[in-house]
Structure formats: C-alpha cells, structure tokens
Amino acid sequence: MHNHLLDKLHGLRLNGMAEALSQQATDGVFAGLAFEPRLQMLVEAEIAHRDNHRYQRILKNARLKVVASPEDIDYRPGRGLDKTVVADLLTCTWIEKHRNVLITGATGTGKTWLACAFGVQAARRGLTVAYRRTARMLEEMAVGHEDGTIAKQRSQLAKAQLLILDDFGLTPLTARGRTDLLEVLDDRSDSGATILLGQMPVKEWHGFINDPALADAILDRLVHSSVKIDLKGESLRRQKTRGGQ
User: Fold this and answer.
1) pLDDT band for position 189 (50/70/90)?
2) Closest by Cα among 86, 66, 74 to 129
3) Spans of all domains in the chain
4) How are the residues of the chain apportioned to helix, strand and coil, as percentages rounded to the nearest 5?
5) Which pLDDT does position 11 carry in this prediction?
6) Is residue 244's pLDDT more than 50?
7) Residue 189 contacts residue 219 (beta carbons within 8 Å)
8) What is the Cα–Cα distance from 120 to 69, expressed in whole angstroms?
9) CB 155 within 8 A of CB 188
10) Which residues contact 96 (CB under 8 A, 6 or more apart)?
11) From edge to edge, which strands make up the β-sheet containing 162-168?
12) Rounded CA gap, 28 and 196, in Å?
C-alpha cells in the first residue's frame, strides 16, 4: 500500500510529498505524531520542493555569468557600497515596482558579480532573470532582423522580470543597435526591471549613445527613479592575485 501511494504521488507530480512520506515511513520520530501535523509536514515538503525546483530552473534559464551569493557581498570601506541601499535592493521590491539599477565603476571592481548576486536573490524570490552582454545581445538582434527571429527575441527579453545588461559602453552602438536597445527598454518600462552595468559614468552615457533624440529616449527609460551604484577601489582581481602570491 505504501509503494502504491508513492506511485500515485509521483504520478500526480507531488515528488516532494513522496520523498517526505518515505522519510516518515522510515523514521520512528514521526510514528507518534497525529495525522494533521504529519500532513502539514508533507504539504510543506512539497512546497519547498517546488520552490527549489523553480529556483534551479530560473537560474538555468538566466545564464548568469557567475552564481554569486548575496551573503558574500563585500562591504569593505572604499568600495562605495551602502549597506542600507543593498539591503533594500535584496528585498527585490524594486523589481516588482519596475525600477532600474545602474552600476558603474572601473574594470575589476565587481560590477558583474554584484549584479549577479542581485539576480540570484531575485531567483530565490521566484522572479525570472535574464543575463546578457549588451554588445552580444544587440548582435543577436541584428541577426534576428535578417532571419525573422527578432520578434521572438524581443518577447523573451520582455518576459524576464529582471534583465541584467552587462558591459554597456564597451562597444560603439550602431544605428540599429540604438534603436533595438530603445525597443528592449521600452518593452520593459512598465513590466520589468533592468540592471545596466558599465565602466563609464552615467553622465557620459548620453554622449556615448551619439544620437541626441535616441539618447534622450533611452536614458529617460533607464535613469528615471533608478538606483545608482558607483563602485570604487582597486581591482578585486588584482587583490586576489596578490593574495595568492
């Protein structure tokens, strides 16, 4: 009967409940518990199993450059990180309110790692995440215009509740790239949040975009009510290299 019940639970895709039931059957601690407490444990086990499965699926689809743990964020003096600001960002309410985060700083200061930590935290909350390098995303969209997949690409980017765009400003934008970037941000303006990372200060972005009208439109969608983090200090990679010597 026990095996038959397990088969039924697996058939209903209640795998977390099935695993918990097997544990209850082999652990004498549960024998003295009443029916309702044991049932509650089974339900909670199923919820936890589904939450973990969703988290793993979100992480896989996100394609984060690094699976960074928010608990390991480095707050050492001189980095330019405000613990209060970071704590608020880790609540993920800004994502639900469709706000943006702009992270700037010299190479090696940990921009990508920090953004990915926010992405991991969002995944823990069950929010969908997508990570893209800006130049590569725009290259893929340029190809999409030619092979007819551009609509599908835009739809995928728009569906992500959090979109992380890395390395903004490293490669000059083409005319089509400016337009595609605007379309991506416009699709997300009322439906998602974006983290944009770049080495150059935000005040230089308008000139980098190199088209006054499009720059105004792009920055209006990005900068308005955004949280800005300017990372400072020596390259973390250089510090790690010295530490290993």
Assistant:
1) confident
2) 66
3) 2-61, 63-244
4) 60, 10, 30
5) 86
6) no
7) no
8) 7
9) no
10) 127
11) 129-133, 162-168, 193-198, 100-105, 227-231
12) 53
Q: Which residue has the higher pLDDT, 66 or 12?
A: 66
Q: Six-digit token pair at 24?
A: 């209850």
DSSP labels, 195-217: EEEESS-GGGHHHHHT-HHHHHH
Could you count the other beta carbons within 10 Å of the beta carbon of residue 55? 15
Residue for token pair 């700083």 = 105
121-156 per-residue burial string, b: 16 or more CB within 10 A, e: under 16 = bbbbbebbbbbbbbbebbeebeebeeeeebeebbee
Residue written as token pair 């005319």: 175
pLDDT digits (tens, 9 = 90+) for 57-81: 999 999 999 999 999 999 998 898 9
Beta strand segments in 53-122, E: 100-105
* Residue 108 · residue 138 · CB < 8 Å: no
- Sequence letter at residue 138: L
Q: How many CB atoms lie within 10 A of CB 230?
A: 16
CATH topology of domain 63-244: Rossmann fold (3.40.50)
| Helix pair 2-11, 15-26: axis angle to 10 deg | 160
Of the candidates 205, 188, 166, the residue with the CA atom closest to the CA atom of residue 100: 188
The pTM of the whole model exceeds 0.85 = no
CB atoms near residue 184 (< 10 Å): 23
Question: How long a stretch of residues is the chain?
Answer: 245
Q: CA-CA distance, 174 to 182, in Å (whole number)?
A: 12
Tens digit of each residue's pLDDT (9 = 90 or more) over 128-153: 999 999 999 999 999 999 999 999 99
